[in-house]
Structure formats: structure tokens, C-alpha cells
Amino acid sequence: MTGRYMKFVPREKIYENYIKKLSPVSTIEILDVREALGRICAQDILSGEILPGFNKSTFDGYAVRAEDTIGASFETPVVLKVKGRVEMGKTFKGEITSGEAVKIPTGGFVPNGADACVMIESTKEIGNTVEIYAEVLPGENLVRYDEDIREGEVVVEKGERINFGHVYTLLSLGTTTIKVFRKVKVAVISTGDEIVEPESAKELTQIRDGNTYTLVSWLNLFPGVEAKRAAQIIDDLNSLINSVKEALKDNDVVVISGGSSVGEKDFTTKAISSLGEVRYHGTWIKPGKPTVFGVCDGKPVLGLPGKPSSFIVSSYLFLFPILKHLAGQKDFLPAPAGMVKIVDEVQAEMRRERFLFVKVFKKDGKMCATLIPGQSMLISPFKKADGIIALPPGEGIRAGEIREYYRFDW
Length: 410
Prior knowledge:
alpha/beta, Molybdenum Cofactor Biosythetic Enzyme, Chain A, 4 domains, six-stranded mixed sheet, elongated, metal-binding, transferase
């Protein structure tokens, strides 16, 4: 194993043969819906009601029979008798018959007999009558009683990440508790003789640890993950083995930052092999080639390269999908946020799939992106980057081409 990469594969094989074969957490928690935003739903949730449950006006105006407005215009208004007024939150007693109208607010109950609403801007009330200046069709300017949600409809699917709309819908249906999968626990281990704490004074050739603390902060933005920085150790095999062994006790995933390459003091593959199995070592991507994918005690142990750009890209492409999958999320693979027009030209390179950091902006009504240059050892490009674009092996980009864009978020 020493001195060369093992089982070197494209990232699609990592997704199919490594990530998808990991076992998601099965423990379920019951939460108040108001505290469940971002968590992963653990069962299909069906509506027990019909919404809105009554025909509802979408504008202030008058509820009418559509056939009574045929031919209405400013030149030849239709005159209807105002039978009454709808109060918000109340039904209307009685029924509209031909030649009648009922004044109605936005969101009000459409009386029986009415099949449309006329906007107030197209009317003029005179005494106990109203002049109608616009013809309406059946169903116009109203929401039908079952148009929003039907009884028995699945409103949240198992494996969906709960969003604002889910919370709003569930509370509107009177559902106040929800079953979710428990949080995935992640331990992040920092390695390297040259690494010191961010608050420490450092020697000229030392590096303050931005990798692991930044990653932990990033991971904890996702409510379904509980991440911590478990240890910082020197380049020593026994120390790394002991740190990984300790981290495996209380966590679902262990991440090792640094030491994933094939140098004399790169011990990640040896540590994982001593505790379990290295499934893959190395992927056909740039940056992020020397990523290590292991399993110990049935849990994923990921070795991320220490170079800043490699660390960020491999976290996004591999660690995030692992965590989403373990958390029970059904859609866990990286997905484009949209298409962008690339304003720069990129020369083609052979063999590896490439990921380029970009800054996204809007110009002439179109979403555009400019490349952020920088070597893999630099950290300054990251504060400017919104995300990455992918280039298949052997491809370049001509200025003005449209490409998929992956945004740095959860």
C-alpha cells in the first residue's frame, strides 16, 4: 500500500460503490414542527384535511355568477343587486342567485351559487347595487376548495429535507409534531507537524488550522449534522490510530484532514487499514485527487487532502453526500444550482475531471461566472468563491459558453 494510490477511480464509482452502500442512521426523533427546519423527514406524512376547504376569493371584489357578467364593459356595465357582504373567517349564509352579487375580501368565503369573483377595480357600488365593468369566466379570481391540498395527499416524503414550505403546510394542517432521523455525528481530526491552533503564535513555516475549524462550522450549518473538531495530532501513526479509534466510539463519521497522500509522513491509509479497510485511495478529479475512502467498524472514515482547494472540493463532492445519505436524505448527490455563462477561457487538460472556483454575478439579465485563479496551496481565492464548475476530462471552455454551476451550500 505504501508509495502508490490504491483503487484509483472516477467520482461516480465512489458514489455508486462506496457512498450508496453506507447504512443511513435509523434512530428516529419526534420534534415540534416549528423546530424541524432542515432536518430529514423519517416517514411519509399525509394530509388529514382538504385545503383551503372552501372556495376562496383571491382579490377584494364581488362574488358573482359568471354567466351574469357576459358582455360587461365600461361602455355597457352589468348591474347586479348587492345581497350582502362576506366577513373574514366566516361563512356566508344564503345563496347567490341570478342577478345578485356579494361583496368579498381577499381570502373570503365564496358564497354558494357564486362561481367567480370580479376584482373591485372593475366595479362601482351604487346604493344597494354594483356596476360590473369586466366579464369573468367560471373559476376566475378564486381558489377552489380542494385546489391546494387534498385529503390523503403526501405533503412531506420520507427522506425529504424539511423546508419552509413543509413547515408552513404542516402547521396549516394542524400537524405540530414530526418524526425525523437523528443527527449524524461527525468527528474531524487535524493532522500535521506544521499545524498550530488559530489563536497560537506560529513559526514562519507553521500553518494555523483553518481547514478543520472551517469545515466544522460549515457542517454545522446543516441542522441534520452535529460536527466537532475532535483532535489535533502530529504526524505519528500510533497517535492517529488512537485518535480515530476514540472518535469512532461516539460518532457516525470520522474525517481526517491531511496525510492522505503518499509521502513519508502521510499515515491516513495506514491508520484506516489498521482499524478497518481502505476501499478507495485517489479519485480522477482535480483538485482533490488523494482523497481516502475507508470503513472502520462499519462507519465511513474519510481522509481529506490538506491543500486548501483540495480540502474544500473533496468535502463538497464526497463528505457532504456521505452525511446527507447517512442522515436519510433521499437526494444526496451534488446537484447543479443552475446554468451560468462563463466569461473566461479555459485551456483543455487531459485525464482528470476538473473543478474550477467561480464568482457568480448578473449581467444584462443573465447569470454569469468568472474564474477565480489561484494555486491549490492558496487560501485567498475562497473568500471570493460562490461555488465551482465541473469540466470533464479533456475539455476546455470558450468564453461565452454555458456551464452547470454548483453552489457552495447545503
